[in-house]
Amino acid sequence: MTQAVSDAWTLPWRGLGLSSNLSTSDVPQPYRLLDSAPGFFDFVEYSAPLSLDEARTQASLFSEMWSRRTDVPVLFHPVHLNLWGPELEPVSALKALDAHARAVGSPWVGNDVGWWHSRSQPFPGYLYISPPFNDAGLADCAAHALHVQSHLSMPLVLENPAVMTRRGQWHVLDFMAKLHARTGLPLLLDLGHLFSHQLSSGLPLDAGLDGFPLEQVVEIHIAGGVVSRRGARAFYVDDHSQPVREELFHLLESVLPRCPSLRAVTFEGDGHPPEVAQLSLKRLRRMVPQGARPPLHLRPPESLAVPPLTGDSRPWELFDAGHAVVSAEKVEDPEGTLADQDFRLAVVAETLDKDWPLSRLLLAGTREQLATFTASKEYRNLFEGGGRSLTQVFSAWAMRRLREQPDDGASAVLSLEMLVPTAFMKAAPPPAPGQVGLMDDVRPASFPVNLSELVFAARTVRRHLTARAWACGDLDLSGLEALAQVARRPGSEPWSFAVRRKAPGHEVLNVSRGLAELLRELGSRPRPVESVPPEVLAEGLWHRLIRLGDTSGVDRPLAQVRPVG
């Protein structure tokens, strides 16, 4: 094994940064925000695949980041880099990571200490599994960290993980201090992640900081999150799209003077509209003022000998606990495990709803049904080299369940949602001036039986149950029985409808018979505007299903419209 590091690491001052997934569809868009308000922040910390080529392909803002990286420096925060788990990262992946970080000029690479993926399959929502804070967890995390560092030209910076479940006898800061001592690698202090540990353990927010090596912290993260309660316990859910807790602003203010090696403070503001992100950045700018500071020189670890993984930290057992494969009562910290399961199951449901919004409600609409899916052989196979996606393993599980427990209504719905993506196999011709055509993200579709009542019912039942939950604090899922009844009584006539492609996933839309006929025709060829009945034209434009060819040859909507639903 060849060590890629030089004799010394030089870490420049980066200042205040804003995180980004480098997608044009995300908010805030860092470069638009910086253009409108110069000086709000100094750098961009972005998440992307380890491979530079994959990042170029998948990240729609990559080209702008690349062209502006001299004026707006970057830090690379890679997507799902394992720093714990049953297997070490492949050397080829780490070589790609090093090449990527060197190409963009990232002076270090930071990542949460956790198990992010199994055999390149990330856990849903990138919800990694944190290690146990004990000797076994320390040994295996040290092996992972030293293995990664041995293939990097720049320092690997170790970030304290978010936690809900108490595993092991140590405080998270004690664990991270021991990991630093074992590896010699610098640290990244995530304040929200620290808050998650303190709440779960019933500790004050600043507990453990006095004995923690703050002089080894080179970066700090601050982000939004939600505090929820289960019984007498409180838990912090790390959700960057939420407002930053006031406690975290105060904590940042108190730790900043105690971090002499600090090089960067990053606001992870994913999902904050630009005008909202500006408010947090203004406040952070006062704590981290603009201006150059001398670089920091660090000595790399004297030895990067990688010890073998012991497996004693039991990653697959903790995977099973987090995904409700085993009863929470049989593992350490049952209440914390249930809170962790709640979060993971919610993310699984949200992910499935992008492709299976109807089937998921009928087959896995309750917590117990979702847990049956995540405890299934199909779900486990996804992370053991099955090589398929979450949406594919759900369909395999759903088909097996329907063979074992036949349900004609659910079977029809599953067939419908398998059919929906095929609507986009055929391209739709664009309209010329004076013509009407399909929107790019819309296609016509048909099905042998009429499930329009179910599409309507799914939307109204969701709204009804959510409204009641807000009022009474309890989500009464018995209301899903109505969906099962509706699915079992489809109309006997063929059904025509519209499909809208979303990012990702699809949406089935009920439309009038006249509009359905128009959409079917427009799937083959545009029509002259004057040949379309005015009421059908108005309906299609209102619901943003059709578009008009502009007289200049540029497509544009000719009426104010509002999103469906």
Q: What integer is the average pLDDT?
A: 94
Cα end-to-end separation: 57 Å
How do the strands line up in the largest sheet? 4-3-2-13-10-9-8-5
* Beta-strand content bin: 15-25%
Judged by helices, strands and strand pairing, the structural class is alpha/beta
Q: How much helicity do the residues have? A: 25-40%
Principal-axes geometry comes out as globular
| Alpha plus pi helix count | 20
Describe it:
- This protein has 20 helices and 20 strands.
- It has 565 residues and is α/β, with parallel strands linked by helices.
- The model is unreliable at 551-565 (pLDDT under 50).
List keywords for this structure.
eight-stranded parallel beta sheet; three-stranded antiparallel beta sheet; alpha/beta; globular; single chain; 565 residues
